Amino acid sequence: MSSLGGRALGGIAAAAVAVGAAQLVGAGFGPRADVRTAVGSSVIELTPGPVKEWAIGTFGMSDKLVLSVLVLVVVAAIAALAGIAESPRRPLGSVMVVAAGVLGGAAVLSRNGATVVDLVPTVVGAVCGVAVLRFLVSKRFTGPQQKPGVEEPDRARRRSLVTLALLTVGVASGVAGAVITRLMSSVAGDRQAFALPKPDVTAAPIPAAVQPKGVALPSFVTSNADFYRIDTALAVPQLSRTDWKLRIHGMVDREVTYSYPDLDRFEVVEKPVTLTCVSNPVGGDLISNAVWTGYRVRDLLAGAGVHPDADMVLSMSVDGWTAGTPVQALTGGDALLAIGMNGEPLPIEHGYPARLVVPGLYGYVSATKWVVDLELTRFDRAEAYWTRLGWSARGPIKTESRIDVPRAGQDVPVGPVTFGGVAWAQNRGVRAVEVQMDDGEWQQATLGAGYSGDTWRLWSFNWVARDTGFHKITVRATDNTGYTQTAERADPVPDGATGWHSITFAVR
Ligand SMILES: Nc1nc2c(c(=O)[nH]1)N[C@H]1C(S)=C(S)[C@@H](COP(=O)(O)O)O[C@H]1N2
Ligand SMILES: [Mo]
Question: What residue intervals traverse the membrane (predicted)?
Answer without folding.
Answer: 65-85, 92-110, 116-137, 161-184
